[in-house]
Structure formats: structure tokens, C-alpha cells
Sequence to fold (493 residues):
Amino acid sequence: MPPNQHLNGAGSPRTRSEAALSAPVARHPGPSTGRTHRIITAAATAALLATGASGCAQDSTSSPAGKSSAVPKVAPKAPFVPAELAQAWKTPPTDTDLLRSKLMATWRTNTAYYIGRGTGVEILDPATGKRLGAVTPPEPDMHPCGMTESLTASGLGAVAWVKGDPLHYKASCDRISLVDTHNDSKTVWTKQINGAPLKGKPLTNDTTQLAFLAGDILAVMTPNTIVGLRTDGAEAWTWRNPGVPANQYVLNWDMTAHHDRIMVMIGMEGDPELWRYWVATLDATGREVSAEPVPMPVPSGGHVDLVGAGPMAAIVQPRAFDKTTKPELVTFARDGSVARRIPLASSAGAIQLRETSRLGRTSRFDIAFNGSTAYLLAGDPFSDTAPTQIVALGLETGATRWTQPVDVITTPRFLGADPDTVYVLAGKATRDMPIYAYDAKDGTRTQISSVKAPDAAMPMSGLVIDYSPGNLALVEPGGGSDFGAVMFRAPGA
Fold:
């Protein structure tokens, strides 16, 4: 490709086909400063394609609106063996630096609970909440700027670090440490991973994304590459869009891992100062599985986010206050192509796409997935006449399988799903909260446990929910609250 060929069309970064442009869209992936701020400022003028929706979303069965009837209470089943959970401990407020105290991830082992923020990765006693220490930075003047969302089966996790002032315009989140939580949280190794040079200098960012793939390959997202590292620290592969000359920006906005697949949201610099977005899908060897990255058109003024902790998917949302255009769930096949675009609509009311923004990445959504079913929330959580609803959506057809009520004036949160059941915490913030089990086939609801009211009101809609058998953690993802995390478990446990 000639190095002076501008990206002036709607095709992939390699095809450059011409198409009409929609209005500019601003979408910021997280706190940014310095070089990152200048890049994102340019991206705020991005031109994205408008498109019509395909697929269908129609209710196949639904429950009538109105007050919910009595719910049968049955013996709890695994993993909700405790019939009742009560507050066990609460951590104090996070650091007052609101930009850096945002949550990155939580890890849990049998002997420790980790809460990772831009101000540090704290290690807590899971029984008492007492601070046991912190993950030690490779050098004293380093701060966390990225973290894997989970641990490997052998207890390995990864943390990215920025050296010096993380808010400095030259801040670079390029040091990666592998941490062994089964061995006193010791650092196994630390590597410096830079992005590909742009105009003779590595492109830098003040945050990054990390994720484990099948075979314990650690994927590291730099601003313009994805690097695969083995657990011994050796570099397994590096991916960069091969059709882009070295003097043009290829910015990676987000990355999600799905066992042996990586989805990368990339933005391409256009002319003049225009940006367009695509999704590239890689396998665990760093090979791009699709012939071309898939363009991600959105409504004028809208935005798009990858979906983590579920199938290969993305959420496309209209601009704020647009009540006529429905958000869409876009699912992808293993070859990286779009499988279906599903409008998110329900006769039970507006679909609630609760987003939680974390440090160094775009939003994550309160959606539960299992197999070919997605579970969402619909309705008004503040209504005292019509209960909020659980909506079971078939991903293969786009049709609604069933809708069933939760409660009135409640903020439901998903605790998890398995092939037979989806588990829901009916959040009341200041009252006891029932835990419901909904049958995956028809939505039949039973109460299997309850959570005692916490000692203070909590913003249930924004908290990060982290459930393991018998332990429910509610973590404040940002700063400025009067607590950092609250742990519930069976009384006396």
C-alpha cells in the first residue's frame, strides 16, 4: 500500500472502499492525559457509519405488568448454599484521587481477596477484610495501569505499571508483571512491552488491557499492537494490522478475550482528522481469523463497546436521549464475521444497559450469558406499580424467550447463570434483598436465599458484583463514596 494513501472510506483498513459518513461521534475509553489526551481529542471528531438493523427481537412469551405475586421460597442450591447472607466486613473509602482510584479488577483465592485500582492492588483477608498488603510494584515509583480480569487455574495474574507520574503527558503503561497469587503474590517476571514505533517513537498510553487466552497466553494490548506472552515471559507473537504504513495511527481502543479468541476494537486515522472503527478477531496464536476487520457502524452520535465475560459480542448504543433508536447486541462468529444484529427491545419496557466504567477500558455491562441465551433487565426500577423484568433473549434467533418479573422499586443485579438457571439479586440498597433463581426454560422464579440489608445505603446500579460460593462482594468502581467494598456471607461463617 502506498504510504501516502489516506483512509478516506468505510471499508476495512486495507480495502479503503468509499461510503457516506455520519455525524461525528465522541467516545472516550477512560481517563486520559498527555499524548493519549491529544489522540482522543482527535478521535472526538470521528466519523462513523450509520446503518439499519438486521435480525429480529420479538416477545415469544411475557408476563403481565403489575405487582408481582408471592414467590415460592425453596431450599437454596449450589452455589447459593447459605439460606441467608449478612454483611461480614466493609473497607474504608478509596483514595481521593478520583482519576486513579477507579477499579481495574478483583481477584479472589482461598486465602486472599484482591482489589486492583490505579492507586494500588490491595490484598485483603477474605474473612475479615483486614489489609494483608499489596502487590509490590517492580520499582518504587510505579503505579498500576492495567490488570487481568481473572486469574489462571494455577493462580497467575498480570498487572501493568506506569513509571513516574501516571498523569504526565509522557506517561507510558508499558511494564507488565506476572504475579503468582499462590506464592505470596510474588512477581514472577516483569517485561517492558512497547507499541510499534510511530514516526520513530513508540506510541504511548497511560493505561492498557491485559487478558489470558487458552494455553495461559497473556495478551497485552499496546496502543497499536497486541503482544502474546508465555508464562515464562517469552514473547509468543505480535499482531499489528499489516495493511497500515508505519506513519499512520492504528489505535486499539478495547480488547476482550473469549477462550481462544481475542476481539480488538481498533480506530483508524482518516483525512482530515477523521476516525472510523473496526473489530479484528485473533486466535490464541495471534493470527487474524477474518480476511478483513469488521466495520462497526453506529447511529449518528452513538457509540459501540465490546462485551466482556460472555460471547464474542458488542453493544451498539444510540446517542444520549434518543428514545426511538434501539440499542443493538451484535454477535460474532468464530471466524470474526458478524453473526447477528439484535435490536434490544422488550414489551416489558426499555432495556436497561447498566454500564460500569473501569480504569483503562471502556464500559462493561450488567448482562448474564449462558450458552445461546442472554439475560437482560427491562422496565423502570423506580416504578411502584410495574416490577422490573428479567428478559431471556435467544442469541441464535434474536427472539425473546420469556420475560418474568423481579420486584417493584428495585435495582436487580445478575449474580451468574448456568445451563439451568439465571441468578438475580433483587437490590433494595437499604432493605433485605432476596436472591431469585429463574428457570432457563420458562423463567419460573423461586427465592433461594436472601441478603441482609447493609449498614448504609449503596448505589446498587453502579456497584461491581462479584459472587463466589457463599461470598458476595459489592465493590465501588470509582471514588468519592463512603466505602470501597462490602463483603456478605452466611452469618457465623
